[in-house]
Amino acid sequence: MQVPAYYADTYEEQAHTQVTAIGERDGAPWVAVEHCLFHPQGGGQPADRGWIDGHEIAPFRDHDSGLVVAMASGEATLPLFSLGQSVEVRIDLPSRIAHAALHTAGHLIEAAGRAQGWVLAANNHFPGQARIEFTAPRPDARLETPEGREDATEALRTEVAKAIAQDLPVTWENDAEGRRIVHLAELHSAPCGGTHVHSLGDLADVVLPTLKVKKGRIRVSYSAAHRER
Fold this sequence. Notes:
By secondary structure, this protein is α+β, with helices and mostly antiparallel strands. It has three helices and 17 strands.
């Protein structure tokens, strides 16, 4: 059995655990551990950087087993692990919390956009590429001029700043269908497999340049960081 520890605690940096599965992909070995700190790429969030017994790994979800498994990063190779072997696992915590801050900020911007009457169309929480895209089911005259688009962006900024100042809690639970639902207090809820900060007060330097409209989509680019811990 594998425990997705990255859901239980975004900030857990290292742990002692054991190997629960081994296998191969394209001739290269992979390994899965019971207490899994490694978040694989998905849901618009990049994969964690991690280590098993000091060997740098890249995690991904194996579609056959459903497990999050780890392969050697880059040109290196993993040693041969055995089932039940005790190992030390670790993640690059600064990268993890940077990803979590971007992902949580994305949910917050989605909530602010919904408050404008817009509908989520796409998202990307990668560093340097982060953006939320919406459609507007009803005409929004603000989107037709540069001044109007700045006004609309300022409305988003105001909503985001208010929620951060309130330090709303970020929680999650599994619904009746087993989906993981992430909540920003009563402000917003959405199915999500990403990592998140503990509360919105953990966010810092959330910046929204003036939004753009392209091919019928409202694109809100953004950047965000985790406050100093």
